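Lab notebook: predicted structure, single chain.

Context: the supervisor wants predicted structures on file for every construct in the current expression panel, including those that have not yet been purified. This is the next one on the list. No modifications to the sequence; it matches the entry in the shared construct table.
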Amino acid sequence: MMSVQTAGKTVNIKSHDGQSFSGYLAKPESPNGSGILVIQEIFGVNSHIRDVADLYASAGYVALAPDLFWRTERNLELNYSEAEIQKGIGIMMKMDSDKAIEDLAATAETLRTEYGAKHVGGVGYCMGGLLAFRLACRNVLNAAVAYYGGGTDQFLGEANQLNTPLLMHFALNDSYIPLSAIIKIKEALGGNKHVQIETYANVDHGFNCDQRGSYNRQAAMLAFARSADFFSKHLLG
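Prediction complete. Output recorded below exactly as produced.
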């Protein structure tokens, strides 16, 4: 994924329970009227997630990436070393996922009320991919994109009322998501007209992140092109 420089900044977001947490806000030079909620991995709102927000801002969206670990450890930024991966997993295990979903819903509201987004989409990666899926199941967003959402197959029961447009990206050589889980997801959601599932051969988990050894430029660019088209169709149409 290419880095795109914008004038991003840290802002405060009000939670539904009367507290506040930070988020990285990237505003476009030429707004298209819609917003993108960028949902972090276990590494926090680090430089990669900021790059994602900047990239969507360059496409005309106001993009906001909230700190989802703030209830345990605020402003956590990790890299991709094994030690940092284990730390991120530990923080994720302490995270209350239902509270995180509430915080994401509050962030979507902030995009609408404070930054004028008529429609709000969400894009998430790994942990954030699962959360993007669960937000879509709650019909909180106007459209959602989930990259290699680990554990999605364990939450398919939440999709009974899913009518939010949802695009899912999966790596077929994913060292964290077995092929059996992807097959299970396809079998459960394949009949839902709102769901589009794309798979990428010969690539591993994290293929979108150019800071990881598993980065695959071709797959990352193809997935972004599909995501951009998807958001254009459902957020700007």
